[in-house]
Design a protein that fits this description.
Pfam families: HTH_31. With 400 residues, this protein is mostly helical. It is 73% helix and 0% strand. Among the domains are: 66 residues, 434 Repressor (Amino-terminal Domain) (Orthogonal Bundle); 110 residues, Substrate Binding Domain Of Dnak, Chain:A, Domain 2 (Up-down Bundle). About 2% of the residues have low confidence.
Length: 400
C-alpha cells in the first residue's frame, strides 16, 4: 500500500473517531467533500504534504505523529447498555420452542406492547430493551394462533429494530435482523399497515448498511404498492405511508449533495407533505407523523446534503408550539440535529444549548454514542469551552 493511501486511511479513521462526516471535515479544512474523498483515497499527491498533514492534525486535534506512523489504530468499540446487549442476544434465541401451557392473552400482550411503545417515545430506551425479549417470546406464541398475534409480533420486532438502530454499528446488525422478522410477521398477518411499518424499518436497516440508493428505491416502491390500502386505513395507514416517503428522502441523501440527490429528496419530502395534508391531524402508531415531522425531516435532509445554514434556517421556521405536540423522542432527535447544524455554522453556544435542552428532555438520547460524538466534536471545535459545555461533556463521560 503506498504512503498516500496509508495516510488517507489514518485521516479517515481519526475523522470518523471524532464523529465528523467527510463534509464536516472538508468544511473545517476549507475544502469540498470531494477533496476529502480524494485525500482519504490517496489521490492528492500534488498537495504540500507536510503542511496538509499538520493542518489535518490540527483540525482533528491529534499529534502529527498519529497521521504519519503505523499502525492505524483499530476502531474504538462503543460500549452498549447491558439491556441493549441482552436484547440483541435474545434475537438469536428467538423464535424459541413454544412452552407448554396457555399462550398469553392478546389483550395482555397489547398492554405490554403499549407500555414498551410509550417508554420508547419517552426515551426510556433501557426500560424498553429490558421488556422486549419476554414480549417477543410471548408474541411468537400468539402469532402462531392468529393474524392479530402476528401483527403484535411484527410491531414488537419493529420496536426492537428501531431501538437497536439507535446505538452503534455493533447493534445495527441485530437491528437489521429484527426488521426482517418484523416484515415476515407482518406479511403473515396480511395487514397492510404492519407491512408498511415493517418495510420502513427494513429501509432504515439498508441506510445503516450504507445501501442508501437501495433504501430509497425500496421505501418508495413499498409506498407506491401499498398506497391504496394505506389510504383506506385511516390515520394509521396514512402515517405509515408518510413515514415511508420520509425514510426514502433520508436514503436519497446518502451519496452526498448532487442535483439528483436534491431532486429525489425533495420529491419524497413533497410526497410526504401531501400525505400529511391528507391526514390532517396527529399521526398514529407512535410515529409523530404530520406536517411538523415532515418539516423536521427537511432539516435533517438539508444537513445531510451539506447545507447546514439552510438546515438552521429551516429549523427556525418550526414553531415551539408545533414541536411541543411531538413525542419526546422525536423532539430530542430534532434538537440533536439542530445542534449538529449549529456547530457546523460556528454557532457553538447555541449548539451547546440545544444539546442541553435535549438532555433535559431525554437524558438517554444524549448518552447514545452518536450524540456523545457531537459533544466531543464541540469540545474539539471550541477553543475555550464554556462551563455549560464542560459540564455536559462530563455527564456524557468525556474528559472536559
Amino acid at each position: 500500500m503506498d504512503t498516500e493511501h496509508r495516510v488517507g486511511r489514518r485521516i479517515a479513521y481519526w475523522r470518523e473517531h471524532r464523529g465528523l462526516t467527510q463534509g464536516d471535515f472538508g468544511r473545517l479544512m476549507g475544502q469540498s467533500r470531494r477533496w476529502v474523498q480524494d485525500l482519504e483515497g490517496g489521490h492528492r499527491q500534488s498537495d504540500p504534504r507536510l503542511s496538509l498533514l499538520q493542518r489535518a492534525a490540527d483540525v482533528l486535534r491529534i499529534p502529527l505523529e498519529q497521521l504519519v506512523t503505523d499502525p492505524t489504530p483499530a476502531p474504538a468499540q462503543a460500549s452498549l447498555p447491558a439491556e441493549v446487549v441482552a436484547l440483541a442476544d435474545a434475537l438469536h434465541r428467538l423464535p424459541a420452542p413454544a412452552p407448554t401451557g396457555e399462550p398469553t392473552p392478546l389483550p395482555a400482550l397489547r398492554k405490554r406492547l403499549d407500555f414498551c411503545c410509550h417508554a420508547w417515545v419517552s426515551c426510556h430506551y433501557i426500560a424498553t430493551a429490558r421488556d422486549l425479549p419476554g414480549l417477543l417470546a410471548d408474541a411468537h406464541r400468539a402469532a402462531a394462533d392468529s393474524s392479530e398475534g402476528a401483527v403484535l409480533l411484527s410491531r414488537a420486532y419493529q420496536l426492537a429494530a428501531s431501538l437497536l438502530f439507535k446505538y452503534s454499528s455493533t447493534s445495527c446488525t441485530p437491528g437489521v435482523l429484527a426488521a426482517d422478522r418484523a416484515l415476515a410477521a407482518a406479511e403473515a398477518s396480511g395487514d397492510p399497515v404492519a407491512i408498511g411499518a415493517s418495510a420502513r424499518r427494513v429501509a432504515r436497516g439498508l441506510i445503516h448498511q450504507k445501501r442508501h440508493s437501495a433504501a430509497t428505491e425500496y421505501a418508495t416502491a413499498q409506498a407506491d404498492s401499498l398506497r391504496s390500502d394505506l389510504e383506506q386505513g385511516g390515520t394509521p395507514g396514512l402515517s405509515t405511508l408518510g413515514m415511508l416517503y420520509l425514510v426514502a428522502a433520508i436514503g436519497a441523501t446518502g451519496s452526498g449533495r448532487s442535483p439528483a440527490a436534491v431532486s429525489t429528496a425533495n420529491d419524497r419530502l413533497g410526497a410526504a407533505a401531501e400525505v400529511a395534508e391528507q391526514q390532517g391531524g396527529d399521526g398514529a402508531d407512535f410515529t409523530s407523523f404530520g406536517t411538523t415531522n415532515v418539516r423536521l425531516h427537511e432539516v435533517d435532509v438539508l444537513l445531510r446534503l451539506d447545507d447546514a445554514w439552510a438546515a438552521v434556517e429551516a429549523g427556525r421556521r418550526v414553531t415551539p408550539t408545533a414541536l411541543a405536540c411531538l413525542g419526546r423522542e422525536r423532539r430530542a432527535r430534532h434538537l440533536v440535529t439542530t445542534a449538529r447544524a449549529l456547530a457546523l455554522t460556528r454557532q457553538r453556544d447555541e449548539a451547546t444549548a440545544a444539546l442541553v435542552e435535549a438532555e433535559h428532555l431525554a437524558p438517554e438520547e444524549v448518552r447514545r454514542p452518536a450524540v456523545v460524538a457531537v459533544v466531543q466534536d464541540l469540545l474539539l471545535l471550541v477553543p475555550s469551552p464554556s462551563l455549560e459545555l464542560r459540564s455536559l461533556a462530563e455527564r456524557c463521560g468525556l474528559r472536559a
